[in-house]
Design goal:
alpha/beta; 5 strands; five-stranded parallel sheet
Length: 162
């Protein structure tokens, strides 16, 4: 009998927590949807994304250091002239090769296969952070946009300076 009495406070505490959670969940239904975060964030066009047209028209086009993040066989099949192959998995090795050809005033443009590839944004952001410079961009639409296979991802938030 004594053991049953010892369980009662724990049972009542659990029941109170369950009731509190149920009330909070019920109250949450009254929060306007505009106050609730969306389930999936809307894609945000990067301020560092540049279309092939904007790049070709930029005054610093000839000074760009290109980083190709595609697979080695894709790089071998064709790449932007002067582009360095860059494998994110071998960061330290490829960063050394990049630093051999780079200076802080050299604009860098990173690209991969297509707009669906997120590696360009990730690598560009990491390079901006590690190198402490802002002139590292992403080729909007990737290799597909450069070769004219698909339209670029966005032309709305295109930067015009390195």
């Amino acid at each position: 009998m004594r053991s049953r009495l010892a369980l009662r406070p724990a049972f009542f505490a659990a029941a109170q927590l369950f009731a509190l959670a149920a009330v909070l969940a019920w109250l949450a239904t009254f929060i306007p949807s505009s106050w609730r975060p969306s389930r999936a964030p809307a894609p945000v066009a990067s301020a560092y994304a540049l279309t092939p047209e904007k790049l070709r028209a930029s005054p610093w086009f000839d000074a760009i250091l290109w980083l190709d993040l595609r697979r080695p066989k894709d790089y071998a099949a064709g790449h932007i002239p002067g582009a360095l192959p860059f494998d994110e998995a071998s960061w330290d090795e490829h960063l050394g090769q990049l630093l051999d050809r780079w200076s802080p005033d050299t604009p860098v443009v990173v690209y991969c296969d297509s707009p669906a590839c997120g590696a360009s944004e990730r690598v560009a952001a990491r390079l901006r952070q590690e190198l402490g410079v802002d002139n590292i961009h992403v080729l909007a639409g990737g290799w597909a946009a450069w070769t004219g296979q698909t339209p670029p991802a966005s032309d709305d938030s295109v930067s015009t300076a390195p």
